[in-house]
Write a structure and sequence with these properties.
The protein has 339 residues and is an alpha+beta fold. Helices cover 29% and strands 24% of the residues. The protein has an 8-stranded mixed β-sheet, sandwiched between helices. The longest helix is centred in the first third of the chain and has 21 residues. The mean pLDDT is 90.
Length: 339
């Protein structure tokens, strides 16, 4: 039974106490992320009332127009992480290079900067003006170098080495979902007390579902296997519960969150315009893949497990097929026809 008084920080501390070797630093780091997201949530909720909507006139490393709220979210997360003293580098989708953290932030002998944080500060920000749910995605790794500011090798690790991952959705309510490799847990922000309270513990995604999420406007650009799979989902067949329902918001965290709770598959395939896919491995695919696997689901680039991909660059892109395990396995079979 979920206790209405179980806060996010209490939950992560109680989980960490189960392991005698734990130092408590990961709990503090996750609490810092939650704090930053509370601040971002406040600004998102009043974005229409202040001068924070619209573009800055600049482009990010992806060549995309930068929105003012993107910049705000990126600054808040980066500064909170620096001040926390638990990380040696910050990696953000909005930054061309990683940001090494100087040792001056870890002068306290009880704090060591042994972690790396990756962020998509504001996923789905193109939907801000139309009031569609947007979110923050994060993941945490342990550093592989021994000391000092972080290095590129600390930042470029396979997804299997994540020690924590999660996301926060800013919608009708603000919801935080996280895992440290011991199940997936959901918290809802209670604005009256300013705390994330546990609302769903040990989430499991249905093994099979009847919902798919994909931008069918790109159908003509897809491979043959991808076209056949989506066409299959839309055929009438009562024995296999087809046709499936199409649910696509266009905000990754929102589409993923719905499928995590109710089952389904989210797909962002490669196409003849984006031959390597469009989503970012380090900032989007890896953290969500860690979460979905902890919930009993599956994630793939269409050929192999996302978490096993060796990253070559911070902004590396990948196709993504993620959600209920049976559905991801089936799309892999269809895509194998293209090999």
């Amino acid at each position: 039974m979920v206790s209405r008084f179980t806060t996010f920080y209490r939950h992560i501390v109680e989980e960490e106490r189960k392991y005698p070797e734990a130092t408590g630093q990961l709990s503090d780091l996750l609490a810092d992320i939650a704090l930053a997201c509370k601040v971002i949530s406040l600004e998102v909720n009043r974005a229409g009332l202040i001068d924070i909507l619209g573009f800055t006139g600049e482009e990010n490393i992806q060549g995309e127009q930068v929105k003012k709220l993107d910049v705000y979210a990126n600054d808040v997360l980066t500064n909170v992480m620096k001040q926390g003293g638990h990380i040696c580098a910050v990696c953000s989708e909005e930054e061309e290079n990683f940001i090494p953290i100087d040792d001056k932030f870890t002068e306290n002998k009880y704090v060591t900067n042994k972690y790396i944080c990756h962020f998509d500060p504001l996923d789905g920000s193109s939907n801000i003006e139309v009031n569609v749910s947007i979110g923050t995605i994060f993941s945490v790794y342990k550093r592989v170098t021994s000391s000092g500011p972080g290095a590129l090798e600390d930042c470029l690790q396979k997804g299997i080495h994540q020690v924590a991952a999660g996301y926060v959705i800013y919608g009708s309510s603000t919801v935080l979902v996280y895992t440290t490799g011991k199940g997936v847990h959901v918290f809802t922000l209670d604005p009256s007390v300013g705390e994330f309270l546990l609302s769903n513990e040990n989430v499991t995604i249905p093994k099979k579902a009847k919902t798919f999420s994909v931008n069918e406007g790109n159908f003509c650009k897809w491979s043959g296997g991808m076209k056949k799979y989506v066409s299959y989902l839309k055929e009438i067949d009562s024995e296999t519960s087809r046709p499936y329902s199409s649910r696509y918001i266009g905000s990754l965290v929102a589409d993923f969150h719905r499928n995590l709770l109710y089952g389904g598959i989210f797909m962002y395939p490669a196409d003849n315009k984006n031959i390597n896919g469009k989503l970012r491995l380090m900032y989007e695919a890896n953290p969500l893949s860690f979460i979905v696997e902890q919930a009993g689901g599956k994630s793939s680039d269409g050929n192999k497990r996302i978490l096993d991909i060796e990253p070559k660059s911070l902004h590396q892109r990948t196709p993504l097929f993620i959600g209920s395990s049976d559905e991801v396995t089936l799309i892999e079979k269809y895509l194998s026809e293209d090999l």
